[in-house]
Design brief:
It holds the Pfam family BTB. This protein is an alpha/beta fold and 742 residues long. The protein is built from 33 helices and 21 strands. The strands form 6 sheets. A 6-stranded mixed β-sheet has the order 2-3-1-4-5-6, with helices on both faces. Strands 8, 9, 10, 12, 13 and 14 form a 6-stranded mixed β-sheet that branches. The two termini are 42 Å apart.
Length: 742
């Protein structure tokens, strides 16, 4: 028979619904395979109708309309309509095989109109045509709280109003309306393409089932199934919050330390120009300076093991105590764009030298003090008036003198300083650049540098990193160099900074060399260096510089802080890194101390390290839920907001597992945190309910499609009588109980 031959079935599907519910977008997603971004979907709505002649004009659209469903070749033709209620759509309804009734999940009024307006209209023109109810834009059920979505809504305001939680319809509400109008219910999303093909496949099944009832003799429709159940849409797992760390300020802080001359304890004399610096910083950066500062000045002998008579460069005592103000002025005049770090001090070696200085000042005027130099407190184990000649290419002699200078308030103070006289081959400008390099690891990009003098000074002072600059650069006498450009090109900057940080940790923290302040902690004392603390921490600078008793105290009391926690703080201040011993179980004390001292970068670094450690533990199969629950509210208290947000994210993602294992810890959280977790838990509650309903419907459908089996129960031989004459009653009772259904 001809009707038994396979042929193509044509299905006309009319799409109706309110304006701006997503009818045209859904048709384009199916017919044209259109994929749009979120910004394109949120553009201002323009009422459009997808033309039916697209099947005739475009070959790709015609090819996509053909599909095989349950072994039946079908050509699906979609008819778009206007959403205005007063339009006449009787022409579109004519000879339709199925009607697709759409509403928006984010518009409760559109669902209400499906029951009160659209369903009566469909039944007036299509009394027996099957209807399929579709909820469009189901991605808004979880996206209305997304930051990208909210920012796009703000950009398009007032044309697009942000959604409220009360505007979102649950799947149960759509399913109730579908049951009232006798239609299957599905949900779709053009953004994620969820359910687009599935909806139209079931639309075809509904149309073919209705056609099979009218044309029961067509055998090609015998295997068409009922519209299948739709698996609930599970929202994607929320993205973890990004951790941002404030940019590093270590180099700027060290440069400000060099320029401000806070609590300097060493002065380099080159000619008649002096440069104040800090032993603690230079000892950690340069090995030669470490050996220079740790020698015994009062003992005999020379640096390097040779006698003083063999030294080729010997400095006179007058060069170390002469007035160098005029040369400083000349240097400032020659280099107007440079910043010269010059010490302003007066030396008082002995009564005779003091008289010479007073006569010299009376003749040439008083010494000009060009910086508010805060003098290092007097160290009791340094003997003043001691001088030692050195056998070194760069350092001629070293002496310990009492100097006078101005503090930050302009008051004259005196302290013990180490005076190092440099060789004549080191010029003031070269020494200035060497100090900047030793403090920051780079050179000043705003000033012209004489590379020949700089490299000669680096070779004399034994600075290997500075010597690695290509000798070819010396052909240009004045060269403009960008900061870190020389080391970055050679790939040595990272190695240099890492070596400096390791040396700072070893020399300043572990050895405690040249420390000038002690901190009384809960479980012991900890030594530190005031200039580094003041340069790296504003609270420390205000404490040591202001009218507080800590500014003059040799031992500073820090209540409520352990020695281990304070040592972790010092590692950050000295190296701009987080101590590897900081782990999720002990990070709260450091976060509290960082918040107390107003160190946002330290807080960010600790948050970043703790989150990475917890992710690494989670990847290794370890449970990090207990850490997240314990850190959550403490981090909120100490302004560690990024770590608190990550803990909330981790708890929300693993909410169901936490409820099964440790429900008591969840109940102990603050009510605001509990409310947040209930709103943002993943998977959400509505999905869990929908999935339970889906599994129940699947079991019911399987029970309906598979008829119950009938089987015969075997008779128990032990209870049967041996004689058939007297076993008739038992046989009748057994025959009644022999069959049952399951």
């Amino acid at each position: 028979m001809d009707n038994e031959q396979p042929h193509q079935e044509h299905v006309k599907c009319v799409v109706v619904g309110d304006t701006a519910v997503g009818k045209t977008r859904l048709i384009c997603a199916r017919a044209c395979n259109a994929r749009l971004t979120l910004s394109q979907l949120l553009t201002t709505h323009i009422p459009t109708v997808w033309a039916i002649d697209q099947y005739r004009i475009y070959k790709e659209v015609l090819e996509r309309s053909c599909e095989v469903v349950d072994g039946v070749s079908v050509s699906l033709r979609l008819w778009d309509t206007f959403g205005d209620h007063d339009k006449d759509r009787r022409f579109a309804y004519g000879r339709s095989d199925v009607v697709l009734l759409c509403f928006s999940i984010a518009n409760p009024m559109s669902l209400r109109n499906c029951k009160t307006i659209w369903y009566p209209e469909i039944r007036r023109f299509c009394p027996s045509t099957p209807i399929v109810l579709v909820g469009c834009k189901n991605d808004l059920r979880y996206m209305y709280r997304d930051e990208q979505f909210l920012s796009l809504c703000r950009d398009r305001s007032p044309f697009f109003r942000p959604l409220r939680e009360t505007d979102i319809l649950s799947p149960e509400q759509g399913r109730i309306v579908a049951k009232e109008i006798g239609a299957p219910y599905y949900e779709t999303s053009v953004l994620t393409h969820f359910g687009v093909n599935e909806v139209f496949e079931n639309v075809i099944r509904a149309a073919l089932l209705s056609r099979r009832q009218q044309r029961f003799w067509m055998t090609n429709l015998k295997h068409v199934q009922r519209p299948l159940l739709q698996v609930p849409f599970c929202p994607p797992e929320p993205r973890p919050p990004q951790v941002t760390v404030p940019p590093p300020q270590f180099e700027d802080d060290m440069l400000s330390l060099l320029h401000s001359q806070m609590y300097t304890d060493v002065i380099f004399l080159t000619g008649k120009v002096g440069f104040a610096a800090h032993k603690s910083v230079l000892s950690a950066v340069s090995n030669s300076l470490y050996k220079l500062f740790t020698i015994d000045v009062a003992s005999e002998g020379t640096l390097g093991g040779r006698s003083a008579s063999d030294s080729s460069v010997v400095s006179s005592s007058d060069s170390s105590i002469s007035n160098f103000t005029n040369d400083t002025d000349q240097l400032l005049t020659d280099s107007p764009h440079s910043v010269i770090t010059c010490a302003s001090f007066c030396l008082s070696r002995s009564h005779h030298n003091a008289n010479q200085n007073s006569n010299h000042e009376a003749k040439h005027g008083s010494v000009k003090r060009r910086s508010s130099c805060q003098i290092h407190p007097e160290t009791p184990n340094l003997q003043t008036g001691v001088r030692r000649i050195l056998d070194h290419r760069a350092y001629q002699c070293i002496s310990i003198e009492r100097c006078e200078g101005l503090d930050h308030r302009g008051r004259v103070t005196s302290s013990v300083q180490t005076i190092v006289t440099l060789a004549s081959g080191i010029t003031p400008s070269a020494m200035q650049n060497c100090l900047r390099f030793l403090y920051t690891g780079g050179l000043d990009h705003k000033m012209c540098i004489n590379m020949t003098e700089l490299l000669d000074a680096a070779e004399l002072m034994d600075i290997p990193e500075l010597q690695t600059i290509d000798r070819e650069l010396c052909s240009t006498v004045q060269l403009l160099i960008g900061q870190h450009k020389d080391l970055a090109s050679a790939g040595l900057y990272e190695k240099f900074t890492q070596r400096v940080r390791n040396q700072m940790r070893e020399v300043c923290l572990h050895q405690g060399l040249f420390s000038d302040v002690y901190f009384q902690l809960e479980d012991g004392l900890c030594c530190a260096h005031k200039p580094i603390l003041m340069a790296r921490c504003d609270v420390m600078a205000a404490m040591f510089r202001g009218d507080f008793r800590e500014s003059s105290a040799k031992v500073v009391h820090f209540p409520g802080v352990s020695k281990c926690c304070f040592h972790q703080l010092l590692i950050y201040l000295y190296t701009d890194e987080v101590d590897p011993s900081v782990v999720p179980s002990n990070c709260l004390d450091l976060l509290a101390l960082a918040n107390r001292l107003c160190l946002p970068r330290l807080v960010g670094l600790v948050e970043q390290k703790v989150i990475r450690d917890m992710i690494r533990m989670q990847d290794a199969g370890k449970d990090t839920t207990e850490h997240a629950l314990k850190l959550l509210e403490s981090c909120q208290m100490h302004n560690a907001d990024q770590l608190a947000d990550w803990c909330l994210y981790h708890i929300a993602v693993n909410y169901n597992e936490i409820c099964r294992k440790t429900p008591k810890l969840l109940r102990n959280l603050h009510p605001e945190n509990q409310a947040y977790l209930n709103r943002n838990r993943w998977p959400p509650v509505w999905y869990l309910k929908e999935y339970d309903y889906y599994e129940r419907c699947v079991r019911e459908r399987q029970w309906q499609e598979k008829p119950p089996k009938v089987f015969k129960r075997h008779r128990n031989n032990s209870t049967s009588s041996g004689c058939l004459c007297f076993s008739g009653r038992n046989r009748n009772n057994d025959s009644k109980r022999a069959y049952r259904t399951v």
